[in-house]
Amino acid sequence: MNPLILDGRKVAQSVKDELMAQICELKGKGVTPKLATILVGNDEASKTYVQMKANTCHKLGMESERVFLPEETTTDELLDVIQRLNSDHQVHGILLQHPVPSHIDERKAFDEIALEKDVDGVTSHGFGATTFQLGAYPCCTPAAILQVIDYYNLELEGKHAVIIGRSPILGKPVSMMLLNRNATVTICHSRTENLDQIVKQADVVVAAVGRPKFVKGEWLKEGSIVLDAGYNPGNIGDADYESCYPKSSAITPVPGGIGPVTISMLLKHTVEAAQRQLNTTKTHSNVS
Ligand SMILES: Nc1nc2c(c(=O)[nH]1)N[C@@H](CN(C=O)c1ccc(C(=O)N[C@@H](CCC(=O)O)C(=O)O)cc1)CN2
């Protein structure tokens, strides 16, 4: 049987269709969900991604604010911007585009984002709360991976998921999220020995290594599921699609796989944040 091609654009559209009604309802209550993005420096791919996020916001009737900071911005200057957005009641979600220039303390900057506005799931608090299922917003690419799995009713319980990559916004959080869905999780990384033999044991492979066409079809067990979260220049994934396709039972392409769902999950979290912040304001005004 031919492998199932997991169509991320279709999944993203289903998320956006649901969001539209919620946005309308919020607007009826006088609230327009608003996402603020911060981009430090001149990385061309990052410029495209923040533009895509703003475009999608506007298509859905949401607001967006884009903050562009020069390459030489210091950590303290970036923290000031985040604090300003934290205290702006019109802003419901904040996203700091990764990567930031190397002289910036990215962890410090991520952790400055108020938890209730951390719609990208990048704070240490958000990571912990996602791991312990305490209702934080998960990182958007891991959330997109789960969304694709659920849309296509793919089985996770008891399956061996091999994650290749351990980044704070992808490999680490997706491992915890798959563990929470009762998958048996192995995390591999650049120092892992015999990677191909570990991948051979996987029912589900998450390619999140940041190297184009890294995962080869000959590494795969027949019938495994390949979820490619790569976004390398030229829209090339982390899995070698040509060789992985015939060995898999289901596979995400690049482009058109996890990427589009990532942005729709970011907007979903922002709408949820707007709803929660509205509820909190109501509770406080009832008390006072
Ligand atoms: N703070 C964050 N930084 C980054 C994240 C993130 O989730 N949070 N993810 C990546 C990049 N990224 C979003 O920022 C992203 C990459 C690719 C796509 C996407 O939809 N790609 C398309 C192809 C591109 C195109 O159509 O031009 C696809 O795969 O079909 C979305 C988001 C790094 N930084």
Automatic annotation (TrEMBL):
Pathway: One-carbon metabolism; tetrahydrofolate interconversion. It comes from the Bacteria. Residues 140-277 form the Tetrahydrofolate dehydrogenase/cyclohydrolase NAD(P)-binding domain. Pfam families: THF_DHG_CYH (PF00763), THF_DHG_CYH_C (PF02882). It catalyses: (6R)-5,10-methylene-5,6,7,8-tetrahydrofolate + NADP(+) = (6R)-5,10-methenyltetrahydrofolate + NADPH; (6R)-5,10-methenyltetrahydrofolate + H2O = (6R)-10-formyltetrahydrofolate + H(+). Keywords: Amino-acid biosynthesis, Histidine biosynthesis, Hydrolase, Methionine biosynthesis, Multifunctional enzyme, NADP, One-carbon metabolism, Oxidoreductase, Purine biosynthesis. Its EC number is 1.5.1.5, 3.5.4.9. Residues 6-120 form the Tetrahydrofolate dehydrogenase/cyclohydrolase catalytic domain. NADP(+) binds at G165, R166, S167. The keyword Transport does not apply. The keyword Manganese does not apply. Homodimer. Catalyzes the oxidation of 5,10-methylenetetrahydrofolate to 5,10-methenyltetrahydrofolate and then the hydrolysis of 5,10-methenyltetrahydrofolate to 10-formyltetrahydrofolate. This is Bifunctional protein FolD. It comes from Piscibacillus salipiscarius.
